Amino acid sequence: MAKILSQDEIDALLSNVTGDAEDQEDLEQKQKIAVYDFKHPNLVSKEQLRLLENIHESICRNFGVFLSAQLRMIVEMNLLAIDQIMYSEFVMSIAPPSSIYVCRADAPASQFVLEVNPQLSVFIVERLFGGRGNFISEVRPISLIEQRIMRRIVDRIAFEITRNWEPVTRFHTTVERFESNPEFVQIVPSSEPVLVVSMEVKIHGNSTLMNICYPYLFISNIVSLPEVQEKILFGAKESSNEEKSLILENLNYTGVTLRAMLGKNFISVKDFLELKEGDVIPLRSRIRNDFSVYITKRHLFDAVAGIRDNRYALQIKKIHKGEGYNGS
Questions:
Q1: What pairing do the DSSP bridges indicate for beta strands 311-319 and 298-308?
Q2: How confident is the model over 38-65, as pLDDT tens digits?
Q3: Strand residue runs (E) in 107-141
């Protein structure tokens, strides 16, 4: 027989259910369980990942500056993520037709993949030929002429990869071939782990991706070197006396720009607009008075004007030892 519960009994049952749910939530909060995939273990430590992030942030920064100069417009390039996946997953994530470049490093000898969004490739080619540059809505294969134009841009990426890896290890990067179908790019077995570096390229309100796929064995061979392990664990060691002398010698031959301010004055906008050839603007200082000499925006010297060997010259009269200046 079914028993009809009273209102008090119903309230008691509901309170027990609510109390059990709250106890379960408290238990889950106390027990912080981290999910670990034993089929796909994390092969890269946090220290190694931080090293890779520093390298590729520099690549993004330097290549972004180069691309801005080539396209004559502002290009923002950022590192999004570094993920460890299977090579088959990386291939499946690329939709043909694409713009894929197979690169090779010589030491340790290995291949890696650079994937550029086809929309970005077409945009770069159009800008280099003087066009306005538009991101195409429908992805199409890259023509042979566009491949040749993009080769110079890709060679620059390879150069930046070589240069920014140099503090860790020295190798030379070359671009071997171009592929549009990812199924024809097999640098490692499908079940091998790889590290995919995802970089975002923002141009004129449009955002695209550029990926670098390294075989894990290539990264492992580099980070397992004793000198690299020392950098990861203990950071960069203190420079030796020979290194300091070499840096100082290079600095001694570094060119700097001296800017001498002979004088200044103020004129109205009306007078400025009416200036014509032959007009004279009187300065507030006399030619025999000392004037300021600047390096960048810092006032470091006082000097007087003169002539030496039939050329205008200046003679340093006083050195200003400002903040951070040691007078050497």
A1: antiparallel
A2: 666 778 888 888 889 999 999 999 999 9
A3: 109-116
Establish if 1 belongs to a structural domain. no
Instruction: Identify the CA nearest to 111 among candidates 100, 122, 96, 127.
Output: 100
| Domain extent at residue 168 | 46-237
Q: Residue 268 to residues 21, 152, 179, 275, 281: CA-CA distances in angstroms?
A: 78, 50, 63, 11, 12
Distance between CA atoms of residues 318 and 293, nearest Å: 10
Q: What is the 3-state secondary structure (H, E, C) of 241-295?
A: HHHHHHHHHHHHCCCCCEEEECCCCCCCHHHHHCCCCCCCCCCCCCCCCCEEEEE
Q: Rounded mean pLDDT of 307-325?
A: 77
| pLDDT for 324 beyond 80 | no
User: Is 200 in the same domain as 313?
Assistant: no
- The rounded distance, in Å, linking the Cα atoms of 310 and 326 is 33
- Is residue 26 in a domain? no
Q: Which two tokens stand for residue 130?
A: 């003087």
Residue recorded with tokens 């301010």? 261
Residue 79 near residue 192 (C-beta atoms within 8 A): no
Sequence-ordered list of residues with C-beta below 8 angstroms from that of 153, at least 6 positions apart, any chain: 67, 70, 124
Segment 229-280, tens digit of pLDDT: 776 665 555 667 777 888 888 788 777 788 888 788 888 899 889 889 989 8
Q: How many domains does the chain divide into?
A: 2
